[in-house]
Queue: 3 jobs
Job 1
Amino acid sequence: MTMTDTTQNQMYKFDWLTVALYLLLVFIGWISIYASAYNEAHSSIVDPSQRYGMQMLWIASSIMLALIVLFTNQKFFSVFAYPIYGVVMLALVMVLFAGTEINGSRSWFTIGPFRLQPAELAKVATSLALARHFSQYHFKINNPVNILKTAAIIGLPVALILLQHDTGSACVFASLIIMLYREGLSGWVVLLALFSILLFILSIIWQPLSVLILIWALCLLIYALVSRRIFITVLAGMLSFGVFFLLTQKIFPHFGIPNPTPDRLLLLLCATTLLIGIVATLKKKLRYVWVITLFFIGSLAFESSVDYAFVHLLKPHQRARIEDMLGMQNDLQNVGYNVHQSKVAIGSGGAFGKGFLKGTQTRYNFVPEQSTDFIFCTIGEEWGFAGTVAVVFIYLLLLGRIVVIAERQRHPFFRIYGYCVLSVLAFHVLINIAMTIGLAPVIGIPLPYVSYGGSSLWAFTIMLAILLKADAMRWE
């Protein structure tokens, strides 16, 4: 078979629906950037002095990169996964010293009019490294050594990106739990991660006593479900309340012991409950008691650390954004301004929008960063509810195609890599859209293929191109 025949065969096998969805999103992004940054003095959409003209250059270069990937042997990405990861990690280190600081983050290399953000490429490199690690012969995800290696592969870019003060990009790597779950991670770990997020939010909103009561009640509920001893669990709860009342109201005052703080009172209540549970199931289901005890202790430790992390690890503007999102403050002139204007823009679009280049919020720059983080509100204002639903539907189709492509791969490397791509893309889409409508704090991550920016467009294009190449050659 000649090279021409081979190329034609590969072209025939490409998932052209995915390619079409990619090109459609890129086109939507280009015209949305044109609308959000429109300048009557530079009305040409290909004017390189404007953002929409620069985006055209980024699109053209992305397509060239995609073609390079598509004409590269797919084995290259599995063989050189670790070297690629190492080079990108080195770039993350170098940008700390030689990078350009923008909006408080030293995350970009500046080369003339172009900027390159290694954190975006780190998503590609980490996905390849994880796929290589997980596709080893006889790999078991629950092996302690493999767990440590996995944590190191994900944790290294996260740590380096956090040193750049780019919390949003670092958060993206948490989405890889989707791939980990697909490859055998226990569902309990996923539930624990979701519970940690819920506990973090509740610890900020509620008083410590309310959070601890929730933890205690949840421990009882889990114990009742796994032990199937609902009566004993309810009895343990009632007895623990009785002992709790007796100690704090009768015995402590009799000996002149002052009432402990609410936190310690609830700690005593939970400890008494668990002690009664252990006694009640001394011969059966004992392992569940210890698991729940560890869960309880871990929850207490996590709840106690939330306040420290919220105050000392997050920057003031990040805390303010979370508080604004949770409704703890309503500062529409400062931290809440972007989201408020974004919601106004989307709401003003109505069912079918105001029309192309007719959005008042867009034309008069009411929404800061509208061509990057808040590009979705441009779509909402100019194309209305119908336009936003159409864009979301396109993303759902793309994510669905990625699942189909990943599942039909014959080599585990590309199946795992496909789910990494799915995880990162889904996180970006979900969080970015949620940011623009006030359902998530503003963490500054772009909408894939639509937001202005070369680094993100390059990274997402390369990610998808590698998967399409592997899919076209899956029978080779």
Job 2
Amino acid sequence: MTKSIMIVGVGGQGTLLASRLLGNALLAQGLDVKISEVHGMSQRGGSVVTYVKYGESVDSPIIEEGEADIILSFEQLEAARWLPFLKTTGKMIVNTQCIDPMPVITGAATYPTGIIDSLVAAGANVVAVDALSLALEAGNPKAVNVALIGVMAKATDIPESVWLDTIRATVPEKFLDLNLKAFALGYNQ
């Protein structure tokens, strides 16, 4: 049986490091892992999504609507955009941070309010977390990605020690302590 995780956000949020950590942790468990990253206008703050499928044998990384066991969303509007992909029994972990898309920045649109409430009203099992505050507590706002990985890690059956070893093997030495702290803060939410 395969499982599916989607990591969604906007360019510059560190979704690619998050997907690398997830993929490496799954591989360390001896699982077959397929990853597909889609970069919209990621360099301009556009939508970024990573599909991760894993299990004993995986043919394709593509996740269809209603298939994701977990959606890890780095931003509220992206959570709303990808909600149709969540299984009815799935879990959505959402960073409460709002990042204005280009139409909001230019004044052509306003950022919607009440997104988390709307996700819950739609029946989603939502874990809302202020990952930016966790990252700041860890020492750097750019650690949002690893704080969110920490929150998500608790929802997987991968042992904490495997995640810690994966972070040590993946993150450059000069950022290691910061990322270990961000992971711990997320994991212990």
Job 3
Amino acid sequence: MNAFEIIKTVRLTEKGTRQGEKHNQYTVVADRRANKTQIRQAVQELFKVKVVSVNTLNVRGKLRRQRTAHEGYTSDWKKAIVTLKEGDKIVLT
């Protein structure tokens, strides 16, 4: 897998913004098959930053309903919280 397949997107949430300002941590959506080492290398390659640590967790899909007759689940996905070296930032525009 290349870096673009491993890192799908950077999640922008209120909690994630606070983590970025306070602890220099960013939340990314990663491929479910990727491990911490692959995620670390992909973030360093794509954003040209130094990664200190990577924490991952698998997020289960939620039950969703459309109208009254149709039920389904959203997709499962992997969340990775990446801590960067002091002074490095991921610029999101």
